[in-house]
Amino acid sequence: MIETTAKPVSGLRGADGATHLVARIGPYQLAIPLGVILSLHEAPLVFAVPCAQPGIAGAIRYQGLAVPVFDLRRSLRLEQRPVQPDDRLILVAVRGRIMALIADEVRTFVAIERMSDEREHALFGDTPVNRRIIAGIAAAPFPCAVLDPDGLILPDEWPDDVTSHVYAQPPDPQHPLWRRTELLAEVPAPPAVGGLEAAVFRIGGQFYAVPVTSVAEFFTGAVHAPIPVRAPVAASLLNRRGSAVLLIDPRPLLDLPPAPLPPAVDGMVLADTSGNLAIATDSLEGLRELPAARAGHQASSLCTSLHPTPEGPVIMLDVPAVIRHAYTVFAGRPKAGAPST
Question: pTM score > 0.70 for this model?
Answer without folding.
Answer: no
